[in-house]
Write a sequence for this structure.
């Protein structure tokens, strides 16, 4: 089994590598510090599992997830996050993630998740599963950001984080005009007029 770790913190990658070495079935553990680096490694070699951080310096982990599942659908993706944000977990599973774990997960649970995912299953902790169930029970009261597409959601997070149209355009390799069009669409769907409203909304909904 070949595993690729994508996280921008070396200490996290080192810790994950130490845990993964306990699995006798693992033949290769590779590392990437950014989303684009992970994509480059996947182009060069097949990996059975990708451990993918939600927060990356060059992109949102959900965008990387979407790209990986589109180009390499057989690669199982296990998402990692600093916080148990059910909104992120729900979107991650809808995009094809095989599992979702927080970084404070015990090593035994991580190994259990890797094993289950490698066998074609899905993994989520019991605590998060309960919170997700509560969230799904409220599905008829959908939050505004649930109306956004994957790209719109990613751009919304960047706008809410205070990034300029130029910064976003450079990060996503698209034109300023395209970002502006997305911003207009996001504002219309969410009923906002200013970026500060997006920021307040994202903070209140634990999205940033």
């Amino acid at each position: 089994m070949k595993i690729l770790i994508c996280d921008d913190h070396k200490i996290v990658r080192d810790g994950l590598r130490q845990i993964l070495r306990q699995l006798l079935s693992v033949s290769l553990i590779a590392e990437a510090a950014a989303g684009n680096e992970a994509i480059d490694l996947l182009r060069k070699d097949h990996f059975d599992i990708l451990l993918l951080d939600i927060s990356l310096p060059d992109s949102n982990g959900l965008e990387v997830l979407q790209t990986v599942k589109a180009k390499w659908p057989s690669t199982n993706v296990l998402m990692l996050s600093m916080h148990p944000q059910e909104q992120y977990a729900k979107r991650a599973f809808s995009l094809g993630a095989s599992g979702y774990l927080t970084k404070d997960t015990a090593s035994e649970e991580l190994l259990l998740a890797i094993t289950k995912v490698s066998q074609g299953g899905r993994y989520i902790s019991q605590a998060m599963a309960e919170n997700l169930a509560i969230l799904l029970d409220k599905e008829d009261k959908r939050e505004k950001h649930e109306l956004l597409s994957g790209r719109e959601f990613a751009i919304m997070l960047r706008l809410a984080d205070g990034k300029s149209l130029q910064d976003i355009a450079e990060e996503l390799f698209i034109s300023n005009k395209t970002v502006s069009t997305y911003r207009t669409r996001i504002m219309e769907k969410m009923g906002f007029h200013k970026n500060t409203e997006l920021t307040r909304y994202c903070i209140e909904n634990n999205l940033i």
The chain has a mean pLDDT of 88. The chain has two domains: 2-137, 142-204. The longest helix spans residues 176-190.
